[in-house]
From TrEMBL:
Gene3D superfamilies: 3.30.70.260, Chorismate mutase, Periplasmic binding protein-like II
Identification of the protein by name: Bifunctional chorismate mutase/prephenate dehydratase
Domain Prephenate dehydratase: 92-267
Any coiled-coil regions, as ranges: none
Presence of keyword Isomerase: yes
Annotated gene: pheA
Pfam families: ACT, CM_2, PDT
Pathway annotation from the record: Amino-acid biosynthesis; L-phenylalanine biosynthesis; phenylpyruvate from prephenate: step 1/1; Metabolic intermediate biosynthesis; prephenate biosynthesis; prephenate from chorismate: step 1/1
Biological-process GO terms, alphabetical: chorismate metabolic process; L-phenylalanine biosynthetic process
The reaction(s) this protein catalyses: prephenate + H(+) = 3-phenylpyruvate + CO2 + H2O; chorismate = prephenate
Length: 359
């Protein structure tokens, strides 16, 4: 036995012993989760409670005195809770597919890997799947740090009865991918329109002769690139691994801090988690100072506004809907007071829900 193996042997034995203890504890947790699931089934309560899972993870991070980073704690316990939740009932999650998209990554970041996946061909289909009961939750991109709001998602939030019950913010790293890892024989670059826009400067400078073709998703582009040597796809790590592609160039996004925010939509609602956000849609009467008067209740009650986005009302007139994210839960007294005054002042008011903020 080599000297280093001799030194490692007792440590490996200790790790094996700890792993056995962890397995026994996980089995006990799984049994407790099954008991919880039975009670939830009897009273028809939802299997997934995002505010409860957020409280569990935040509490563990606050108590953590180990070398593990907060992100590590989050990832480990999300997967533990996901696997235990699946013992109660598989959570069906709709997202923009196919496999390998950033929407799928956002779904895993929110729900863990132990879900029943419902990949969809469009954001509209994601909302339809949840609205019709074919999925319990939907994941949809709503905002990119460099390209701004995702208009279709905003329109669907307005036009459907679904509520926001969570959000996920992902760092987006785009790679130029092909079957061979070279551009030999490549004539086209395919990607979702947002990805093409987020890489426009790099593409213009480095591959100006390649045609750009918009696809329904980066995952679909990567799938085609795996089948056609004339296609280069813009996609992330997950799609690269999923379809066995090679990187011609990694991280070609124009903004090195590129992030996309996704919303989780469902028919449900969330109780306060302690770190929440409330989203509403408003419109105002066409009169001087209307927008200022509309926003005044938040300042009056000390409620911070995190985001303000406007969209044309699409009625043939110069009217707009305003999408507002504010700190706090609708059950918080200050937020409740502000919402009450906003609703009284607005020509149109829709509460999209209160939900835990992303880390």
């Amino acid at each position: 036995m080599a000297a280093d193996d001799k030194d490692l042997a007792p440590l490996r034995a200790r790790i094996d012993s700890i792993d056995q203890q962890l397995l026994e504890l996980l089995a006990a947790r799984a049994e407790a989760a099954q008991a919880v699931g039975k009670i939830k089934h009897d009273v028809n309560a939802p299997v997934f409670r995002p505010e409860r899972e957020r409280q569990v993870i935040d509490g563990l991070i606050a108590k953590n005195k180990s070398p593990l980073a907060a992100d590590g704690i989050t990832y480990i316990w999300r997967e533990i809770m996901s696997a235990c939740r699946a013992l109660e009932a598989p959570v069906r999650v709709a997202y923009l597919g196919p496999a390998g998209t950033f929407s799928e990554q956002a779904a895993f970041a929110q729900f863990g890997q132990s879900i029943s996946k419902v990949p969809c061909s469009s954001i509209d289909e994601v909302f339809r799947a949840v609205d019709a009961g074919a999925a319990d939750f939907g994941v949809a991109p709503v905002e990119n740090s460099s390209e701004g709001a995702i208009s279709r998602t905003l329109d669907l939030l307005l036009d459907t009865d679904l509520k926001i019950t969570g959000e996920v913010a992902l760092v987006i790293k785009h790679h130029l991918l092909t079957k061979s890892g070279t551009l030999d024989g490549v004539t086209r670059v395919m990607a979702h329109p947002q990805a093409l826009a987020q890489c426009q400067r790099w593409l213009s400078s480095n591959v100006p002769k390649l045609d750009h073709q918009a696809m329904s998703s980066n995952g679909e582009a990567a799938k085609l690139a795996s089948q056609d040597a004339t296609v280069a796809a813009i996609a992330g790590d997950s799609a690269q691994q999923q379809y066995g592609l090679q990187a011609v160039q990694s991280q070609i996004q124009d903004d090195p801090h590129n992030r996309t925010r996704f919303v989780i939509v469902s028919h449900g609602s969330c109780q306060p988690s302690g770190n929440d956000q409330t989203s509403v849609i408003l419109s105002v009467n066409n009169k001087p100072g209307a927008v200022h008067q509309l926003l005044a209740p938040m300042a009056k009650h000390g409620v911070s506004m995190n985001r303000l986005e406007s969209r044309p009302a699409r009625r043939g007139t110069w009217e707009y809907f305003f999408y507002i994210d504010m700190d706090g839960h609708a059950n918080d007294p200050k937020v409740a007071a502000a919402l009450s005054e906003l609703q009284a002042e607005a020509a149109f008011f829709k509460n999209l829900g209160s939900y835990p903020r992303s880390h």
